[in-house]
């Protein structure tokens, strides 16, 4: 016995668990014809979906919308008319413009911070470079530790690409040394997704960085 699937047309309500998108509606259908005589082969339709969270996904294949992470609702359970789609698309456009403006402001602020660090006489003794292999970061860490703790001898070694190890005997606490070295550590970890990443601050872009910096106090 075959199961009749709800049709995918403009206004059809869908939902997905992906990226916390939730509920949305088909806003446009691309290549709706199943065959293209000029190309003599079938054409797979694609769908734009506008979500109630003011986001939009473009040109999603039907196979995706029919997948296990999506649900397509029959018309009687939910359907968006032209006015609703227009409002949702306007909300999405406004949200996108707001996000772009925020991104521009953040980029401008970062560039200003970088310029300020480059010209700050307080850091004139440090090497300026944005390399992430740890080489420049190691040199700058040595300089800062020597200034901060002149009576303690530190060893700052590069274990491999992007990884440094700082060791010392007695003297300052681990937290005190970490206050110096942490500004060079760019590696991040997301426990929710179990993924490693990198986050660069203006300081790191000017004075170098390393993915991981290990501390060992004897």
From TrEMBL:
Stretches assigned to coiled coil: 82-112
InterPro entries associated with the record: LPD29, LPD30
Record keywords, A-Z: Coiled coil
Large polyvalent protein associated domain location: 9-108, 136-217
Protein name: Large polyvalent protein associated domain-containing protein
Organism of derivation: Gluconobacter japonicus
